[in-house]
Design brief:
By secondary structure, this protein is mainly α. Helix content is about 70%, strand content about 0%. The relative contact order is 0.10.
Length: about 425
């Protein structure tokens, strides 16, 4: 304990701007390594890049309403139009298009570091939170390919930043960019709107009126495009892509994103568990046991396996973690039940969050609300991939960092302060 506090104290003596500079340099080193490994982004076309590149070419050569209505993708057009504009300015070759993605990655990392630097976390957790984002395998791998995922991630970060700084014009523009990048990004906007409405009822007066007007406008702004398409995606894609045996609601998707919560933020979750004196508290052991049994039962009923559309394309996994475990254990049944561990950890964390839900500030409430709505909505998707969790990753990391900050480390347990998280 003394060694831990010594490390935290020493790190806290380092000026925050110095750490920001070090982490920004680290991002540049990561980018340099990516450029060296990929020989300047000149590798052959990679998997879904083929589909995205064809859509970009459609908008590049035919930027008209016909293309807007019939392009063969599920997502709204902003990423493809942005790539097409970049291609008009700098060229249409694969390396030049990938360079645009790399810039999105660098911008996202820099903005994430700036957000964390202003929130007053201990330097140790500021560093851990930054690295968990910068080196996240999905964010890192998407930094060098022509995928549209980093558009959503970047605009989520801008949206968060504008909320924390009360920048209304930025909130409007980033919110519009969010919903025109992916349909399910509406979850981020709607969950914050819900928290503001709840805050109004809680205080029995109208608050945040400007933000509510902006959020209403953002939420409704996608409707004209849906009307134009005659659905929530371009008509040709809806007809051609979905596997015919895809269920309307894939329950196992819920458990994919629940295990992502613990796996992709593991150092922070582990720290919280350790500070809860995991092996010394009989109540903790009992709650975790219940969580583990519940997780196992859920996985018996709704095992984790790829969606019918992914199976049709020859995939046997739902993402990097699932693929890695299948490679190690070679048995999908064993791997399925191994997920009981991260599931039970996430259930345990949420047990404590919900137990103290009334004392959460509006930002923490937003982080929690967004993840819960995400779990409810995403099983409607015809696909289930770990990478879809990436839009929730910043909110999850902020939630865990706030939990660590607000419980004031071990002293919150020793003094039993009632207005803390635990």
């Amino acid at each position: 304990m003394k060694n831990e506090w010594c490390i935290i104290t020493k790190l806290n003596n380092i000026p925050i701007n110095t750490l920001v500079g070090i982490l920004s340099t680290f991002v540049l080193i990561v980018v340099t390594i990516l450029l060296l490994i990929t020989h300047g982004l000149t590798f052959p076309i990679y998997l879904d890049e083929n589909f995205y590149n064809k859509t970009i070419l459609e908008f590049y050569y035919h930027p008209d309403l016909h293309t807007l209505k019939y392009y063969r993708e599920f997502n709204p057009p902003l990423p493809y139009i942005s790539y097409a504009i970049w291609a008009k300015l700098f060229g249409l070759s694969l390396p030049r298009l990938r360079l645009f993605t790399l810039i999105l990655y660098m911008s996202s990392c820099w903005l994430w570091i700036r957000i964390l630097s202003r929130l007053g976390y201990d330097r140790l957790f500021f560093i851990i939170g930054s690295i968990l984002f910068i080196l996240n395998p999905y964010i890192l791998s998407n930094a060098i390919v022509i995928y549209n995922d980093l558009f959503s991630v970047l605009f989520v970060l801008i949206f968060i930043n504008c909320i924390l700084k009360n920048k209304y014009y930025g909130l409007l523009l980033s919110g519009l960019a969010l919903v025109y990048s992916r349909q399910y990004n509406e979850i981020i906007v709607f969950s914050y709107w819900l928290v503001l409405v709840y805050d109004c009822f809680k205080n029995k007066k109208i608050l945040h009126l400007n933000q509510l007007y902006i959020l209403n406008f953002i939420g409704l702004s996608i409707l004209p495009l849906f009307l134009f398409w005659g659905g929530i995606s371009p008509i040709s894609t809806i007809i051609a892509t979905i596997a015919p045996d895809t269920p309307i609601y894939q329950f196992s998707s819920i458990f994919v994103y629940i295990y992502c919560f613990s796996v992709y933020s593991f150092p922070l979750v582990f720290y919280i568990l350790v500070k809860k004196k995991l092996f010394q508290d009989s109540t903790t052991i009992k709650v975790l046991s219940v969580c583990f049994i519940t997780s196992t039962i859920c996985l018996c009923i709704w095992p984790i396996f790829p969606s019918p559309s992914a199976l049709k394309d020859g995939s046997d996994n739902v993402g990097y973690v699932h693929r890695f475990l299948l490679f190690i254990f070679r048995n999908p049944i064993v791997v399925n039940y191994l997920f009981s561990i991260p599931l039970s950890i996430t259930f345990y964390v949420f047990y404590h969050i919900i137990k103290h839900i009334k004392i959460l500030d509006k930002y923490c409430l937003w982080y929690v609300c967004s993840f819960i709505i995400f779990l409810i909505v995403m099983p409607f998707s015809f696909q289930k991939w770990e990478k879809y969790f990436m839009i929730e990753l910043p909110l999850v990391l902020l939630l865990l960092l706030e939990m660590i900050k607000k419980k004031n480390l071990e002293r919150a347990f020793e003094k039993n302060i009632s207005n803390k998280f635990f």
